UniProtKB/TrEMBL annotation:
Protein family per UniProt: Belongs to the disease resistance NB-LRR family.
Protein name, UniProt field: RPW8 domain-containing protein
Record key words, sorted: Plant defense, Repeat
Pfam families registered for this protein in UniProt: LRR_14, NB-ARC, RPW8
Domain (RPW8): residue spans on this chain: 1-149
Domain of life, per lineage: Eukaryota
Entry keyword Repeat: yes
One GO BP: defense response
Amino acid sequence: MALTDLFSSEIASDLWKMLVTISKKTLRCKSSAEQLITYVREILPMIEEIKYSGVELPAPRQSQLDRLSEILRSGVELSHQVLSSSRWNVYRNFQLAKKMEKLEKHVTRFLQVPMQAHILADVHHARFEMAERFDRVEASNRRMERFLEEMKIGVNGGGWVEEAVRSMQEDETWVEGCKGNNGFGVGLDFGKNKVMEMVFSRSDDDWIVGICGIGGSGKTTLARELCRDDQVRCYFKDRILFLTVSQSPNVEQLRARIWGHIMGNQDLNGNYMVPQWMPQFECKGEAQVLVVLDDVWSLSVLEQLVWKIPGCKFLVVSRFNFQTVFSATYHVELLGEEDALSLFCHHAFGQKSIPLGANVNLVKQVAAECGRLPLALKVIGASLRNQNEMFWLSVKSKLSKGHSIGESYEINLIDRMAISTKYLPEKIKECFLDLCTFPEDRKIPLEVLINMWVEIHDIPEAEAYAIAVELSNKNLLTLVKEARAGGMYSSCFEISITQHDILRDLALILSNRGSIHEHRRLVMAQREENGLLPKEWSRYQDRPFEAQIVSINTGEMTEMDWFELDFPKAEVLIINFTSSDYFLPPFINKMPNLRALIIINYSTSYARLHNISVLKNLTNLRSLWLEKVSTPQLSGTVLQNLGKLFIVLCKINNSLDGKQFPNLSELTLDHCADLTHLPSSICGIKSLQNLSLTNCHNLSQLPVEFGKLKSLEILRLYACPDLETLPPSMCDMKRLKYIDISQCVNLTCFPKEIGRLVSLEKIDMRECPMIRYLPKSAVSLQSLQLVICDEEVYGTWRDVVEMTKSNVHIQVPEQHFDLDWLQE
């Protein structure tokens, strides 16, 4: 057998060229690519010598070349996979990086044999030619090492998550561009105009308009487009209220929100009892009010939420046509064939038409199987992106075996959605199914989900973020950025997740297969009418549940309302409730493996928690999220392993004591109105790396010993208007990388020795009008990369940059005032 048959130098040459390209293209593979490039470059001269010398080699050397050929051939194949991987396919790139590292280890072990002595010739020549290229690879490596930190603090746009959010925004832009041009939905532009005619009607009888259609047909999209329309906003003078009702609504709270909006009293307490008899009155002048009720399921609920009041219009979005209530109705039609194909191609190929080289008939057949429903077209189209023709044929075959979408459209639609999840990697599929554990039609903070995935799937944060982006790319969830001032610089802390209710139903159906006590996720899909636990659960009191995730959705619970349940394998407990008093479930005592506890109150008043003593036994608890509760006193309780604590919209009651969380790495206090000062005991938490004190409007003082937080890397003091000074001791934080003091409107200056913050990379100081000058030591901020500030301070920072000749980027953001987020 000829030597060239055993080993071809072209293989090594191709691998070398491909790996150089890969090192630029895929951040996750750069570390491995750099090493492999080095090894192949050293081997090339030896291969050239063998190929042209014509000397027959001894058997041992021939065996060595066989082994080397096999390793490099596998490297070429892996390189092809990396090159063909879409830059948006983050999770696949993450997995390919692991394979690259494994290949690197194989090559390393091979080069440790005596063969190294034969590959030293001509290395110096190649080294000179590659110097500039390696400099770029080294710079890329440094960027990769800071990747997760940048994603957290928002430097350079925030990484994968920001890319996914931008992708969602591009989708909306594409839809906007298609309106009126026979693009997505004959129904969107035409339907919006029809509904506008109904809403603008001056007739007293046309006071409640309905938008009806099957699930996934675009009803909510149409309603939101209507609310964003300039003509509609002008007509109603921005007095538009958008509320999601859902299958298990809090009717009294919704009534109070609606009545407060109509009366112009946005601060009306949610516990305000709206009288059943509504006084008739005339709106002053030409005042008009629009109330949009989305996802209405029950006529009895709807009748409690609408009143015929002059000047007030109701727009109701529902799968059902409530003919006895609606004065006018618009039925959302399915997309036309051309529109459906255009939307499908947008998500499958990134363009509005079938690309050259694609199997036209196959693409049209798969699109037709989606039944002209926007949701099905988006999800199935995204699942086929960057897949080969055999994969398409397999999906088409499975789709064609199902029934057409007809009378039982919802069941058949869910069946089609299930096909798109079948081909997901197992870990990504499990993460998708986890989404059903959160209440319907609620925004899920991205941090809550990431923490849950990290704990229950034993994955690093970077992989959890990659999975969230992958599910977003597949249209199985939606990443939503809060529309607040300077939103383009928001970090992952201002990003939430939403999910279409049909996709949530799909996750529930897939999770609920088998016996209830064997479910991996035990979920109350919606709140029971009596606000208590499902009776079905009580039948299994005599045997332990296998669930790893337990999700509860109740009203007020007393000690007598609970029954004994056993969850020995539970790692995540999600408690959603609506009440001002809540007795924590006694069965928490029987959750020895609990890692993440999430307690969220959806009422308008703070809830007082009882039975706090059950937390003492949670020795493995690592993440705790409390929302809209009166924070309990944990006297005598030490949560030794707690790493992350989030307290959101809570009443603190001076209950924080750093000694109770000795190993905390992340602490967030958001919208805590009674927080006036940070307890000095927090400064004793030596492990604290991330501290966020945001929207705490009465916070006026930080501890003098603040600088004791030597491990702190991220400090957020966003929107704390009463804060006037920063403690000088914070300049001792040598690891601090990011400071956010935006909207601290009374903060007068930075500490004089701020230049001692040698690791500081980013400063966000938007809307800090009292800061007029910078300390002289600011010129010593050697690591600084980005400053976000107002126009008034731009010149001062520019002088600092010119003086130091640094590459600091100074950004003056456009002011963006949008209070729509208050409606959520």
